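yo, Biotin carboxyl carrier protein is done. seq:
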Amino acid sequence: MSQSFKTNVNNTFDFDITKDDVSKLDSIKISDAKSHVIQHNTSYKTEIIEDDFNKKKYKVKVNNNTYKINITNDLDVLIKDMGFEIGASKKVNNIKAPMPGLILEINVKAEDEVKENDSLLILEAMKMENVIASPRDGIIKSIAISKGDAVEKNQLLIEFE
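structure:
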């Protein structure tokens, strides 16, 4: 079975491309960033203008037209579906209860500046004390709970600015 890549162009068009599709291209590398490609008897001059290999994002010029391209494979899709996307924790703007429980301690207040992994609060659940740590550096916008509150799963606890 051939490996498949999901390709998004200009945040508009989605294509599935296999390694077999790529290997069938008639392509000649002119330099590190430039190539000459022939597909279906049509000639294309290509140039990679910008690339971010880790994020799999590219800006490519094809015959003087520029395209923004994002590439993902099956593993990237699985990682995203599991919630382990690179940088995902940095985008967190609020903390929700991971499980039902009782708030034992709140270590921050509104307008406090916190660093990633600082202890924000302690949630007792199933007779265990769970330290809820900050997923990122930031400033606390608001605290939606008080010490002694019983909370439900996914209930808002803390918001970041």
